[in-house]
Amino acid sequence: MELVGRMLDGSIPYSIRGALQRTGLFGSRVSQDSKIDRLEEVPLFEGCTRRQLRAVARIADVLEVPAGTVLTKSGDPGEAFFLILDGRVRVEVSPRKRVRLGPGEFFGEMSLLDGGPRTATVAADTDVRMLVIARRDFSLLLSKVPDLMRNLLVVLVKRVRAAEQGANA
Question: Is the model's pTM score more than 0.90?
Fold first, then answer.
């Protein structure tokens, strides 16, 4: 586990595919059909056809991590998009700004969209199972599923509005 933690905190370089491990935290392996069924439940993928969801499932790897694992660090380059299937994560934008995300929610899209560094540190609050899409696959996905870009923008706008309300409160 120390090796995975060091890869995730950036002290050991890795490719996202090389870092993925099936730890068995949630039992059995996730089938393609199961991935598609879960994707159908996620608002981000509303309007996607079964064929498009199959394409998403094909490029998404399953990552299972124990509670306490740091998944992204603020300032690091973004290499993947994460969609939470089970469990909860804590997103820390600043020492005073923390958000919790759970099943059906996602993170990591901003640095993949604009090429900038991660804007938050994300750590697993509980054992977490996620679908992970690597940077190169994420770009291809957006070109193949145009509705996904619109849905991403809607979520990003909601997050910006919530941040503005928090700043004004």
Answer: no
